[in-house]
Amino acid sequence: MSTELSELTSVGLVTKESPIQVKKGAKPLHVGLPKEISTQENRVVLTPEAVGLLSNNDIQVIVESGAGLHAKFKDQDYSDAGAKIVYSRKEVLSAEVVLKVDPLTIEEIAEMSPGSCLISALQLEKQDAEFIKALNDKKITAVAFEYLEDKVGGMPVVRAMSEIAGSTVMLIAAEYLSSVNEGKGLILGGVTGVPPTQVVIIGAGTVAEYAARTAIGLGANIKIFDNHIYKLRRIKQLLGQQIYTSTIDNYSLGQALAEADVVIGALRAEKGRNKIVVTEEMVANMIHGGIIIDVGIDQGGCIETARMTTHDDPVYKVHDIIHYCVPNIASRVARTASYSLSNIFTPIILQMSDLGGAEEMIFNYKWFLRGVYTYRGSLTNAFLARKFGLNHKELQLLLAARY
């Protein structure tokens, strides 16, 4: 018995000793790739190269015309790779599996086939009970790709997008420090005879790691804060530098913020919404003309004065401090981000096809099960149930009853 089956047996999902029967010879898997309708989202989940691989394995990919244009992929690229290009959004959404970056709207959910599978971001701060109800009314199996795990317990989509966001965030800071954008008129880093810029990074995860690498490469001084000592120790080892690190307390953090030119909010909530660690008073005490970038704004952010903005109108000022709070920073580099997403989801779709569908993926792979939040008419995520005041059912029990 495989490791995955052993894990499921331990929690009572598998009662037989014989292996699960894989549904070979079933009809080919149909995957829909709709165009993103949000003007803020430029990424696409599958690249033409990935579609070519899937097509070679008898998976039919239905692509809505224009789905890849913002990432500089043409319809012809997808067509040459074996995709079916359609102009009907309903035809794409009626596929057995729908892959999308932004969550679907309630109107789009209504056009999905009953019992099909949606794989997209959940974007918790944007959702409400009506969204969950719409999924359950259609008995959609919905998978939040930010909750998906890999076989070693990591979160591949979160990590990939965090790497991109961390690398990009310091370039954004450099833009808004310049005089052209009414910043302090500083170069990010430093030059001979001029003190380097001061960067404070709150959080010591992947975003912080890549932001710190970029800042160090440009010559900035950095200070990293986090309440987990093991994360601080890890990031020092990864960076290979004797950098300033500290746990989060009002005095040390407030003092660092008062001297900072750039503040990066890179805390990620472990469960639910982020906690505020930077108060408005701390922001008011910063040097005027500085910049705050709250990367975790989609989870509520960790800075009291932060509120969600868009790529069209990305910044605002509070106490003469520039705030940049766009939730999907990776969308600024849509082609790179699309390749990164495609690298993650191509093998998942291949596995799904081999097994016979999304339901078999849930049953066979615990790491995939982690991303499921609605299943055949039931909400299966306890946190979402508490947030929206809804009832939920444990997914393991639903699967056990079904099998």
Automatic annotation (TrEMBL):
This entry's Enzyme Commission designation comes to: 1.4.1.1
Please identify the protein, giving its name as recorded: alanine dehydrogenase
Q: Which InterPro entries match?
A: Ala_DH, AlaDH/PNT_N, AlaDH/PNT_NAD(H)-bd, NAD(P)-bd_dom_sf
Q: Which residues form the Alanine dehydrogenase/pyridine nucleotide transhydrogenase NAD(H)-binding domain?
A: 177-325
GO molecular function (one): alanine dehydrogenase activity
Q: Name one Pfam family in it.
A: AlaDh_PNT_C
| Organism expressing this protein natively | Algoriphagus lacus
EC class name: oxidoreductase
Q: Which UniProt keywords apply?
A: Oxidoreductase
- The domain of life for this entry's organism is Bacteria
